[in-house]
Amino acid sequence: MFDLSEVARGLVAPGKGILAADESNKSADEKRLAQYGIPVGPEMRRQFRDMLLETPEIEKYLSGVILFSETLDQKDDEDGLYFPESLKKRGILPGIKVDEGLEPFPDSPEETITKGLVGLEERVLEFKNKHHPGFTKWRAAITIDGDRLPTTRALVENAKRLAIYANEVQKAGMVPIVEPEVLLDGNHSRLRCREVITKTMQALIAAMEDQAVDMGAVIIKTSMALSGKGKDGEGKNGSVHADTPEEVAEDTLGALMEAVPAIIPGIVFLSGGQSPDEAIANLAAITKAAHAKNVPWPLTYSFARAFQEEALIAWAGKHENVPAAREAFLKRLEQASAALVG
Predict the structure, then answer these.
(1) pTM score above 0.85
(2) Residues tagged active-site
């Protein structure tokens, strides 16, 4: 029998983590390519994926890669293999984002809920049968605004949807990654972020218990406890505090240890708008503190922009720049892996 718990443990194998390369077509065009002056469109998105996914030796640092649906049907330059096949050939498990993005929450329009439950069973089985990914991901976005947001109703609804998704994915024979991302936008304190992460995780665990999710075969992807970066997301409206890595570690682990049971096989951190240096420094501090506190779960990374940013700058959409871009990408993977030593 296929052991989902073993697959989940493999995703958090020592020294390895997950690359989040599951940006939607719109996000890949607008938030990755265009931002760095690179032409947009399907072929440039394919070249962007190829630049990252075909970097030699990434299997030393990556256990899995989360892909967007478009990427499943695209091929690499070198061997003409579909990207999932190329990854599996190197011992990297391909995964797939199965949610359908965010929409306003009717009960609280300033907050969002995640679309995609309608038709989820059929969609998951189609991905499974055609591309054979080993895991999936569903993201919710949690907004902080003082003591007003998030509302309990939004937390509960997002947790319920994450849990329904996780149950459906496990029934299809894959490992679900549940990602309730607490957003950095806003002027909240790090302690407020810790409080929200705690409440979010408590709601998530309760919902997964209600939906009879196998807790030994689900990975949690979480934000770090950080001060808000200002209402524009870039600190221009008054970033409230420059957190030290040690502060981030203390409050991140404090939230998780209060809310997440030991049975969970692993927790992975998103970079969430941090710079590459910030994300890796904070990860190193978290893992160092985790060793000291003897936390019950393996911890690792599941970064997107923090791994991609420098590679995109070096690449600039030009074939002759691919070696330099891959060197920058691999360097960041090496640094993240080293950070796991703590």
Answers:
(1) yes
(2) 179, 221
